[in-house]
Every structure is written in C-alpha cells, then in structure tokens.
Design brief:
The protein is built from eleven helices and 16 strands. With about 300 residues, it is of the alpha+beta class. The chain is elongated and about 70 Å long.
C-alpha cells in the first residue's frame, strides 16, 4: 500500500517521526528509496558504551546505513553491516533483525585514536578505519545459504563506500547520505537517505526521460543537509515532500525499529561450553567467571562451582 505525499502529509495518518524506515518512490520513474530516522534506538545503543565522539559518530552512521540498506531487501533473519580496517577504529558493526530489532558496537584503540583525532582531511574512513573492507551479510537461518557481499573500503565516508558497493557489485545506480550527532537535548540521533535507480521493467527501454528523472532525483537528494536528516521536528514524510515534491513522491508503509539484543544467559553458557575446561579456569576473576555482551554491555556471572555442569 502506498500514498502520494502532499504538503500536509498523508491524509488520515500520523507516521512515526523516529526509529523508522520509510520507503518511497518518485512518481513516474524507476527511482525508489529509503529514509531512515533513528532517535531512541541510536541513543540507546550509543549510551551503553563510553565511546569517544568520533567512534560514536561512526557507529551511529553504521546503524542508520544498516537500516537503510536492509530496508531495500526482503529477508527473514538478520542483516549485518560491518567495516573492518587497520586504523584506530578496527571494527564497526550493526545488525538488524527482520522484526525490527537493532544493535551495534565498535572496537577501537584509544591511544591510536587520540593521535588521529576526528580523522584527517581525506575523511573519517581513511583517517579512522583505514584500509580494509566493508561487508553485508544476510543470514536467514541454518536451512538457507547465507549471503555475503564484501568490497574494499573505497571512499572518504561510509556512505560513499556503501554506494560503491551497489554500483560495482550489484550494478544498481545509488546515492546514499548519512549523518549522526547529538541533538539539542544531548541525545544521539542518526539518519540515512538512499535513492536507487531500479532496473527497468521487462519490455521497457532506457530513455532520455528515464535518465533525466534519475539525474533530477540525484540533484534533489544532494540538497538534503545533515541538519534536515537529523531534525526531530521534521517528520520523514515532510522531508521527502520537501525534497521531491516537484516530481511527486509516494510513501509506502513504514517499518518500525527498536533497540534489541539477542544475548542471554543460555547463549553465554553455550559459548562457555566451547572452551576446554583448562581455559575456563583461566577466565576466572576474583573467583567468578564474568561474560559481557559487546553489543548491550549486559553481564553474566557464573559460579566456578557450576563449571562441571557447564563444561562439556
């Protein structure tokens, strides 16, 4: 189901402002897109870690990008977006379950990060992440083949790296813009806007009109500022109308997002069972085994007296 957007939005509906994937289509063209807004989700993920601002910003953008990319797919499982490099921020990862639960975390070297600051003139990717790769993974369970796309990190920003993946690996013309930062209330926000030129329907042909529609969409999307992307007072549909009303824009049913981690005591026990008994003893600290989830920082405590029950 879809609705054309007007200056007053969609009649009879009150779409969510935050924590949502809003799909849309430019009228009369093969251009489709996704707008992602993260408010409470981004803040929940980031406030659980004491990340320096450059790292938190990278992770915030990674969360928004994972949602905007996953929103373009049909899957039942887990979509994961991650970067791995040789820079101060060695790993950034976010995943999104098809039901809308999101989580993410980053690994970094504090000393190297202090020397790098916010990156360098070349941009945050070469300055903070360094040389490495970007990977997309879709895992739909043990009964299906896992899909994974991997490309080298090429670009100044995460958005540029993701765009190049689509254009080189999927042959889909794509424009992506992302942003993350603290709002006036001090809470973290993140957002992403993606437009794509989809393949023509069977029997049709690329024409000068189709080329023009794509170029207009690119030009209009480029006018979107970080402030507009992150503005909590600017509803997603209002932003889409502001950007694309000249050609007409149609919104589809939005998808709600929320923070959610899959860790549990049962999962922690399964991890412990993978260790030899001797290594379990080495994990003891002050007479306890403590496991902490990298994503949500939840901790699980185990009594050494229970080791015979835990260990294989």
């Amino acid at each position: 189901m879809s609705d054309p957007l007007t200056a007053s939005g969609v009649a009879g509906s009150v779409p969510p402002t935050d924590d949502v994937i809003q799909p849309f289509r430019i009228e009369g063209s093969e251009v489709r897109g996704q707008l992602v807004r993260l408010g409470a989700v981004a803040d929940e993920v980031l406030r659980r870690h004491d990340y320096p601002t450059p790292v938190a910003t990278l992770l915030g953008e990674t969360l928004a990008l994972s949602a905007v990319l996953a929103g373009a797919l049909k899957y039942d499982g887990i979509f994961t977006f991650q970067t791995k490099g040789d820079g101060p921020v060695g790993l950034v990862v976010a995943d999104l379950m098809s039901g809308g639960a999101m989580r993410g975390y980053a690994q970094f070297d504090q000393k190297r990060l202090a020397g790098a600051g916010h990156g360098n003139a070349a941009g945050p990717v070469p300055g903070l992440i360094g040389k490495g790769y970007l990977a997309f993974t879709v895992d739909q369970g043990p009964e299906t083949d896992r899909y994974q796309g991997i490309v080298e990190l090429e670009g100044a920003t995460l958005s540029e790296c993701a765009r190049r993946y689509f254009e080189r690996s999927e042959q889909i013309q794509t424009s992506i813009k992302s942003a993350a930062g603290r709002g006036p209330d001090g809470r973290w926000r993140a957002a992403a806007l993606m437009v794509q030129r989809m393949p023509p329907v069977p029997g049709s042909h690329d024409t000068a009109e189709s080329d023009d529609a794509w170029q207009r969409a690119l030009a209009l999307a480029a006018t979107c500022t970080d402030g507009e992307l992150l503005d909590p007072a600017l509803e997603p549909n209002a932003l889409l109308y502001r950007l694309f009303h000249e050609d007409g824009v149609r919104a589809f049913a939005p998808k709600a997002l929320r923070f959610g981690c899959r860790c549990s005591e049962e999962r922690a026990v399964r991890v412990l069972r993978s260790f030899p008994r001797e290594e379990l003893k080495e994990l003891e600290v002050d007479g306890r085994i403590v496991m902490t989830c990298e994503f949500c920082r939840e901790t699980y405590h185990f009594d050494p007296d229970a080791l015979p029950e835990i260990a294989p």
